[in-house]
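Hello again,

I reread your note about wanting to compare the complex against the isolated chains. To keep things tidy I'm splitting this into two emails, and this first one only covers the full assembly. Below are the input lines as submitted, including protein chains and any nucleic acid or small-molecule components. They are followed by the predicted structure of everything together. The single-chain runs will come separately.
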Amino acid sequence: MRRLLLTTAVATTAALTLTACGTTEPAADDAKKTTERITLTDATGTKVELDGPAKKVIGTEWNVVEHLIELGVDPVGVSDVKGYKTWDTAVPLKNEPKDIGTRGEPSMETVAALKPDLILATSDLPPAAVKQLRKIAPVLEVKAADAADPIGRMTENLDLIAKATGTTDKATELKKQFETKLEEGRKALADAKLAGAKYAFADGYVVSNQVSIRPYTSGSLIGAVNEKLGLKNAWTVKGDPAYGLGTTDVEGLTTIGDVQFAYIGNDGDASSNPFAGVLAKDQVWTSLPFVKKGDVHRLPDGVWMFGGPGSMSKYVDSVVAALTK
Amino acid sequence: MAVTATTPATRPPAATSRTGAAPVTAALLLLVVALAVVDITQGTASVGVPEVWKALTGRADPADASVVVASRLPRMAAGLLVGAVLGMAGAALQTVSRNVLASPDTLAVNAGSYFALGVVTVTGVSLPLFASSGIAFAGGLAAAAVVLGLSGLGTGTVRLVLAGSALTLGLTAVTEGLLLLFPLQTDGLRHWNQGSIAQNGFDGVLQMLPLAVVGLVGLLLLARRIDALALGDDAARGLGVPVRATRLTAVVLAALLSTAAVTLAGPIGFVGLCAPALVRPLARRFRGFTRTRGSLPLAGLTGAALVLGSDVVLRVLVPADVAVAVPTGVVTSLVGALFLVVIATRTRDTAAAAAPDRLRIRSRSVFLTTTAVLVVVLVGVVIAALLLGDAKLLFGDVLNWAQGKAGRTTAFVLDTRVPRVLAALLAGAALALAGTLVQAVTRNPLAEPGILGVSNGAALGAVLLVTTVPAAGSWGVAGAAFAGAAVSSVLVFGLAAKGGFRQNRLVLVGFGVATGASALISLLVILTDPFNAIKALTWLSGSTYGRTTPDVVPLAAVLAVGVVVAAVRRTELDLVSLDEDTPRLLGLNLGRGRLGFLALAVLLSATAVAAAGTIGFVGLVAPHAARALVGRQHARVVPVSVILGAVLVCTADLFGRTVIAPAQLGAGLMTAVIGTPYFLYLLVRSRRG
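Full-complex prediction:
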């Protein structure tokens, strides 16, 4: 009897222990996954080898940070956290990542101290800095932007980051959602008889008495999204080969004719909204046909114009809302 | 303009023309009008000659008319106003200080305004134009006051320019630091840095016009007294002219004028320096311009022609959209630099070489003590530089790292930190040595790789290579920097060699080349990589960011050679730095030796620039301080100067890496911030001594 009790006790304890093991420790196949190596080729042609899906990831540019957050990977380090919080509220940070310095010169020492599994950088970072970062952890360097195919560049970057973080399913879902969003937006605009409408998007800066305006040509991410929405880009100026951004001044606006004009400013940056400020009294501005007709739309703050599907989806919503109002 | 070398310096006044002044003025006026008319027809809107004509005759459609009225005409007016005001301010400053280099740029007026506006911009307060011009005026005047106060009214012109360039470097460094720290708030300010005459409506021009009128009228009322100052302080005093009050009033009025320009269009470089320089040869030929009443308006007209001409040329040469992105100030700097170099080589340099700094003779024990203290300081700074940074380490970490058994993070931190510390140490030492050599050879206390355009030439070469071949290696960048430095130094020293590197010519040509090169760098960045200005700013601000050990190797090799050569030929350095005649009396021909020293200095500055960007100040401060500490024997000056340079840049780099970590400031910015107060102190002290 005693033996039986003992055996039962031991068996029960063993059983309990065994079940407890099963719930607290990672499942066997989980453990197997981490040993699965991931090999990627980044935008520079460098082979990037990972021991498994990266968990502790650092982003040196805001677009890759946005991709990460959307894929459900909260970055452990981000450049200029305050700036990100000001300019990108479409895809807000869900954690409090460590600030690793400026976007142009992230601090190697802070990055090293974070002991990341993976560093996401863009081609905007000097090659010397990338070389040093590669000594800390694998660096996936993506091309920051490409005016030849802005949306394609964005989704390719998203896919690459998804592969590195083991979130390809999420990426597929995001891309599908974005496609749907574009299709819905296109339909909404077409229903409002705005298909093929001439449209110009810009941002602008003002200092002292001078206004500079930055046109988003069809090579820009927002310009490409506009075309998917069935809008016609009214800018004739040439954009730069990466971001598709041009430069012009107020009188340059006379060349775009009668259009729907939209812009994004930021309340956190006093110099970023000349359109509702300095220009209100400017004769050239007030005599523009679209200004006279009231076809100037300020879109909500916090859409990062160079971001990912999250920012762009919010942009689609705000354009549709503004134009069909 | 043809003041040839055969013309006697004391050309009798009878040779000047009595009647020529009116036609010359008329011709210049015509040129300005023609430029103004062309300027109105240029811009991003498709409003050309026919539309402008219609608009002016009231027959254009309202849109075109609005472009002419609210964009073209204000821009043209701003160009005229800014140019005129800067030209006059420069002319007044040059006359009262009897210094061809005095101008809003060199008296730190622009830098002071820029700094004041930068501080206000960073706070995020948006001010109306008038208030911001008040702030700019306060900043500009304060800077000018500091410069004049430190150099002493009516004392040597060299001191004035030294103090002015020092303060300009320091203030610009702080402002640029603000730009790097607050890129969002100051995005527009960065553009403003180079100045543009574009306007939105007449508001700005109309608000600044009264300031300009007050300044001009004031200066004209003061004209007779200013003329008297040109005779020298004692002569002026003899004529019953209150020297101090006159000079002070003229400076305040000139500051007022340049503030008007700076608030309206940002700093339009070089016009204040260049317009009076262009007028000077005319003043020699035509009697009407010898007096301030004649030359001041003429300088104004010349300034207007320079600014408008630059704007017109730019818009003719590049497409309208690109022209918008290129600041007017970049073009005036280029145009101005060219003119300045031409003028500097054509006019006679009557200024004698500067009196040697008054130095106490130091004993051997002073030298030994100084060196010992400096070595201790150097060791301390190096240790601090290794331990401090974004991540703080302890000495044990460094020891572990040296033995190759440090942890992964520590190893990495030191792997990236050590090359940076090395780059800073070596660049500082190399620049200090280069400064010592150049100052000895040219016997010119203002001669410094930075001021003479060698550093900027090197930076231009390096930036050219980096923008065209992004993956260029360390030796490649060093080579490109050397090519740039070689071209600029051949230009500067070649043009200034005639007449034995005289004070004004050397510095004028060097200053011209330096400004021209930095304008070209800005232009290059705007045209090739318009949305990555921070990258270029970082490069120009002198940074050790991202340096690896191989980057430092060329510098180390050149520095080793330099130190050895300087040590071996120390006596020769002593002799060339003494005067022109002593070596000749001793039967020495120093031509070849001089050339060798100069080549070495150029090589040193080029490799320093390639390794750590343009770091100003060190080449000027370190040799000066070294001479003040240990006397003028090169056997003593060279080691002390080299250690001082290393300490200075290493400390600057240390501060740049730690103060605002994880963000960083360039070592060049920090050098200027640390160097400026010390240098100004040096100036004050040497006045007493």
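For quick reference: Chain B touches chain A through 73 residues (CB under 8 Å).

B.
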